[in-house]
Design a protein that fits this description.
- Helices cover about 20% and strands about 35% of the residues.
- The strands form 10 sheets. The chain has a 9-stranded antiparallel sheet, with no helix packed on it.
- Helix 6 packs parallel to helix 8 and helix 7 runs parallel beside helix 8.
- The structure holds alpha-D-glucopyranose.
């Protein structure tokens, strides 16, 4: 790794004094005597973009990360100047640019807190090896500042004191602290004085981030090429920082609900009879499951878009049969296209000049599963269109419902750098460049092309895609998993952190290989992993297959029952998860919230890593050690009910929680209304005529939102959805539930079944929209016999 000190002595260049400043639309241009330009764009009142050019002009402004439909605009903008600074004021920020050296300081406009300031600020070094510049930024780290984000880094949630590299890398059996691994997400969040801001360094070259690693009070980031081009996003709430970053880089559309069910995978299930056997076993043991995976062995000689006819003589027929049993089939597609004269995809690619080439002209040849391959240049829009079209047979004709993109860092075998050499050329959507610039977006552009194809051929249903490599913005097209982990307790804890970190980095649809990919898991580890996995937005068991079986029944009978109980819990919570997904797509709120995101005002949360909030009302803390009977965990402020026994826990402190192997610490925020489905073996198995609402008493008020639609298709875009706000108001002797619904979803639901938890009084009467309701049992604590029509407006439970 190149570290900053090494570079510092090689001859850094700095902007000199500002000689002119002018404004064009929403941007200010500051020009220095040595021809550096800073273009400062006001993206929103709380978002500033800093873009520097060294040569007196900017190159084409092109970004794969930024979502073209991102909302922008600000309420107020004024510039003043004094003898030392240009001062740009928006409704939220005050940005001071030094006339002497272009360094900036950014203040909270409302209370004057200094949020972020350049230390050396922008500087650069000429890149003798490649041309262009190595662009660098150093900032002062504030007292007690903590750092979060940066995608899939397998390290402590708080990044302080560490240094990282972003270069998508195939990382079989990576370890804690391995860096870099599969993803390159150059976005971090800083938190000090209880205020949060984010920095998104939109540069696809190899980038580096140093959070007080080399120098105690300095944070820096730099890239091996391209421009210093970063967005400063102010909160002060971390939730707002993440929502704004996610707005800039985009969210996916709502996924089909089946993709939120349980997925079972292995490298590989074949032949057809084996896959059928797995499917039957799920149904026989009544373990819910929605998706089964075809890993590379389904192909003919690992050639993409072919299949092995002796393993799967009639793929279409098998897929159809699986559908009738409620299973969707997801198939893997890698980027490497086998070099073989008689292979039509190879020939098409060759004929149309779709494959990547080396700088001197020959094709980029590399070994992957099929042997020697060429690789489509997914940064070429023509290639993406071609690739999208290739899914017609698999998706439209055969009925495969999801595509799994793997090895797209891109991974190349038997070469020391595990990928393409730097000189490989790419189109980069009409901005030709070398692999140094395109590497980190290669996987993203592959997933994008795949998504477009799957979407087209699945329509009017919703597509499902999963990728291994990603750059910022990839979440618009696909879900992801954390790559080739290991069946170890340490990896269970890494998976927990990685999913939280990805969530904070704008990418919520994520999960890990449950049970571990490499090496052998045991029943206890598998159980603890399933317990965590059912709370991850993407929930899939996957393993390399060379260390025994890893299905829910592969251990002993007791394990199977526990695993089933937790997968059932996931299926019960599907309407809650789906609503959280709606919040994510609509409000850009992460589905998983690390405690620091849930309550940044509580300093205790700043270093917590194990506990997280699933959605906005369920607190989860996985057991990540063997032989545990329970654990200590931190409860964020508020009161929490133990999901298993309704015991109440006061937040703002640590407590011991019992958790034998058949249970795990799960808590519900008081005042919550949790929607639940009956247990189904797959999404859509049962007509849901009644929705259970679990109400958790609170002396006070709390809102919960439930989103529903047809679970697939696009009718929701035409208003066919239902968005219900439930307001729970608890008093000493009364609990009120108000329902307010918008949208026009024709639901078959007729009633709600209410479960009331933690009621502190005996019930005297229940009134529904002013009518008295008759009740069989009136008692304190837990009540579950209240069934009400789904049209009610207000329910009163009155105490004695
Ligand atoms: C890679 C993937 C893994 C897959 C294997 C074979 O290692 O990460 O999930 O099973 O390739 O396709």
């Amino acid at each position: 790794m190149i570290i900053n000190t090494e570079l510092e002595y090689k001859g850094n260049l700095f902007p000199s004094n500002v000689i002119s400043c002018h404004k064009e639309v929403d941007s200010f241009y500051f020009v220095t005597a040595n021809k550096v330009i800073l273009k400062l764009t006001i993206v929103a009142d709380n978002i500033l973009r800093f873009h520097y050019a060294n040569t007196g002009q900017f190159e084409a402004d092109f970004s794969y990360a930024i979502n073209k439909n991102a909302s922008r605009g600000f309420d107020s903008l004024k510039m003043e100047e004094d003898s030392h600074f240009y001062i740009i004021n928006t409704a939220k920020l005050s940005c001071h640019i030094s006339k002497m050296d272009l360094r900036n300081k950014i203040y909270d406009r409302l209370d004057g807190t200094l949020i972020n300031q350049d230390e050396l600020g922008y500087h650069w070094e000429e890149s003798y090896e490649f041309g262009g510049d190595i662009v660098k930024m150093t900032k002062t780290s504030m007292d007690g500042e903590c750092y979060y984000g940066l995608g899939d880094k397998p390290t402590h949630l708080n990044l302080k004191g560490k240094c990282f590299e972003n270069w998508a890398t195939d990382s079989y059996s990576f370890g804690k602290e391995t860096d870099p691994i599969y993803k390159a997400i150059p976005f971090y969040i800083g938190l000090h004085d209880y205020k949060a801001y984010g920095i998104f360094f939109d540069n696809t070259y190899k980038t580096f981030f140093d959070f007080c690693f080399e120098r105690r009070n300095v944070t820096s980031f730099w890239a091996q090429g391209g421009d210093m081009n970063y967005y400063f996003i102010y909160g002060p709430k971390m939730n707002k920082v993440i929502a704004n970053y996610t707005n800039l880089t985009g969210t996916p559309e709502l996924p089909p609900m089946w993709s939120l069910g349980y997925h079972q995978s292995k490298w590989s299930y074949y032949p057809e009879s084996r896959l059928m056997e797995i499917a039957n076993k799920f149904r026989q043991l009544q373990i819910p499951c929605d998706a089964l995976y075809l890993d590379i062995d389904y192909m003919d000689g690992f050639k993409c878009f072919t299949w092995n006819k002796s393993y799967f003589p009639d793929l279409k027929c098998m897929v159809a049969e699986m559908e009738t049993e409620g299973f969707k089939i997801v198939a893997i597609i890698d980027p490497g296209i086998k070099i073989e004269d008689s292979y039509s995809i190879f020939n098409e690619g060759l004929k149309n000049d779709y494959f990547c080439k080396r700088a001197d002209g020959p094709y980029m040849k590399g070994k992957v599963w099929p042997g020697d391959c060429y690789f489509p240049d997914f940064t070429n829009p023509k290639v993406r269109t071609w690739w999208s079209g290739l899914f017609k047979e698999l998706v439209e004709e055969i009925g495969i419902r999801g595509i799994w993109n793997d090895m797209n860092e891109p991974a190349v075998m038997e070469v020391p750098n595990k990928s393409f050499p730097n000189d490989v050329r790419h189109d980069y959507d009409g901005n030709p460049c070398s692999h140094r610039k395109a590497h980190n977006v290669y996987g993203m552009q592959m997933a994008r092309a795949t998504y477009e194809g799957v979407k087209k051929f699945t329509y009017p249903k919703r597509p499902f895609v999963i990728t291994r490599a990603a750059y910022s913005g990839t979440q618009r097209y696909t879900s992801t998993w954390t790559g080739d982990n290991v069946a170890s307790w340490e990896h269970l804890s890494i998976a927990n952190i990685q999913v939280q970190r990805m969530s904070m980095s704008g990418f919520s649809f994520v999960g890990s290989d449950i049970g571990g990919f490499a090496e052998r898991t045991d029943g206890e580890l598998f159980t603890r992993w399933i317990q965590l996995g059912v709370f991850h937005p993407f929930c899939r068991t996957h393993s390399s297959g060379d260390h025994g079986d890893q299905e829910p029944w592969s251990f002993d009978g007791e394990i199977t029952l526990i695993v089933r109980k937790f997968i059932e819990l996931r299926y019960q919570l599907l309407p809650y998860l789906y609503s959280a997904f709606w919040h994510y797509t609509n409000n850009k709120t992460p589905i998983i919230k690390p405690l620091v995101l849930f309550d940044q005002e509580d300093i205790q949360t700043h270093y917590r890593t194990d506990e997280f909030v699933f959605g906005d009302k369920i607190l989860v803390c996985p057991i990540i050690e063997a032989n545990a009977k329970g654990r200590r965990m931190y409860f964020p402020r508020g009161n929490w009910f133990n999901y298993w026994n309704n015991e109440k826990f006061e937040g703002g402190k640590e407590s011991w929680v019992e958790a034998d192997l058949d249970t795990m610490p799960i808590f519900i925020l008081e005042g919550a209304v949790i929607p639940k489905y009956p247990i189904q073996q797959f999404v859509g198995e049962l007509p849901i005529t009644e929705l259970t609402l679990a109400l958790y008493y609170k002396n006070g008020k709390e809102e919960s939102v439930v989103y529903e639609d047809a679970h697939d298709g696009y009718e929701y875009n035409k208003g066919k959805y239902s968005l219900t706000t439930f307001t729970l108001i608890g008093k000493d002797k009364e609990l009120i539930l108000q329902r307010h619904q918008v949208g026009h979803f024709d639901t078959i639901q007729q009633s709600f079944k209410l479960e009331v938890h933690g009621l502190p009084f005996d019930i005297k009467t229940i009134q529904l929209d002013r009518e008295k309701l008759s009740l069989k049992v009136l008692k304190k604590g837990f009540v579950n016999e209240i069934i009400v029509p789904n049209t009610f407006t207000e329910l009163h439970i009155l105490g004695k």
